[in-house]
Amino acid sequence: MNREINRQFRLATRPVGDIKESDFEYREEPIKSPQSGEILVRTIYLSLDPTNRIWMSDRPQYMPAVEIGEIMRGVALGVVEESQNQNFKQGDLVSGLLGWQDYSLAEGKTGTSVTRLPDPLPTSLTAFAGPLGFTGCTAYFGLLDIGKPKEGETVVVSAASGAVGSIVGQIAKIKGCRVVGITGSDEKCQWLLEELGFDAAINYTTADLEKAIAQSCPNGIDIYFDNVGGSILDTVLTKINLYARIPLCGLISTYNAKEPVPGPFNYSQILMQRACVQGFIVLDYEPQWSIAITEMAEWINQGKIKYALEIVEGLENAPKAILKLFDGNKKGKLLVKVSEEPD
After folding, report:
1. Between β-strands 76-83 and 39-47, what pairing exists: parallel, antiparallel or unpaired?
2. Domains of the chain: residue spans and CATH
3. 57 vs 7, 65, 144, 202, 252, CA distance in Å?
4. Within 13 A of 153's CA, how many CA atoms are on the CB side?
5. 342: preceding bond cis by omega (within 30 degrees)
6. Where does 175-284 have alpha helices with state H?
């Protein structure tokens, strides 16, 4: 990495349908020095997530859309290179919305706020991009606070081999539930069953989904953790039990849609079964993140939580790597390695 140049990707155009590499503009700018109250952060790992697609659009959303010409928003892990802020020192590891760039200013009036990571780290740095980061917190609070799992209940998870879904299923197993994962390949099904301990796994691309869910959930579905929406949600609704809970985390099957998406045809089942469907954003729980991180770190160190990382080398490959989120060509958490971890 050239210490004099800050490589950046900015939003060039709003995607129509699938994200294209041409939707991003590459720029090089001088690295800015931190002013009073600011810190200069070098990005180590950049997280690529389905919410990137939402931020790129001008649809109503939970944060302001990224404007054309702005640095592409992105959660990242980094290290403080220079500090003019008494609360941070050189060498501190941090996380925050650092964006798609090598270096960023944080804590200033025009900068990005960051959170310092524990020192020493309870586990690897990359865990803070997955199970100990916002995806892990999403799984933790979505399942435990909204799903409220009880021992012996049946939990179904869509996008089960993804960064959030894979953690949801393992937490549900820790809580004594029967866990069924829905994913997109036989290889991913095998991983869910053999490595993560799911009770059943369904390849939605080849299975008769309604029959497969009925066979895997003989006692119906008590909790459906929804990451995808669309036809999978519609099918699951036919099998939900009385007072089922549906934490609505994501709708990735619809993010690239060019036309309005039909609502679920089996919407009436929410009424008939008196189900609770609740959408949530992990930022809702930010004051409680430390609770999730502490418990999740214990589970990781005890071997109760496993996770997969797919790491793409080089910031220059971020515009191409993000396509993996939507073509099914990844397992677990997707990261871009921007620079080396400190010694």
Report:
1. antiparallel
2. 5-130+307-337 (3.90.180.10), 134-283 (3.40.50.720)
3. 23, 6, 30, 31, 14
4. 23
5. no
6. 186-194, 209-216, 230-237, 268-272
3-class secondary-structure state, position 153 = coil
Amino acid, res. 270: I
Q: Partners of 147 in the beta sheet?
A: none
The amino acid occupying position 52 is N
Assess contact for 134 and 204: CB atoms under 8 A.
Answer: no
Which amino acid is present at 5?
A: I
| Full pLDDT tens readout for the chain, 343 residues | 556 899 999 999 999 988 999 999 999 999 999 999 999 999 999 999 989 999 999 888 889 999 999 999 999 999 999 999 999 999 999 999 999 999 999 975 555 689 999 999 988 999 999 999 989 999 999 999 999 999 999 999 999 999 999 999 999 999 999 999 999 999 999 999 999 999 999 999 999 999 999 999 999 999 999 999 999 999 999 999 999 999 999 888 877 777 887 888 999 999 999 999 999 999 999 899 999 999 999 999 999 999 999 999 999 999 999 999 888 778 889 999 999 999 8
Return the closest-CA partner of residue 181 out of 202, 195, 163.
202
Phi and psi angles of residue 106, each rounded to the nearest 5 degrees, phi first: -130, 155
> Quick check: 61 and 12 in contact, CB under 8 A?
no
Alpha-carbon distance of 268 to 103, in angstroms, equals: 50
Global confidence as pTM? 0.91
How many residues are present in the chain? 343
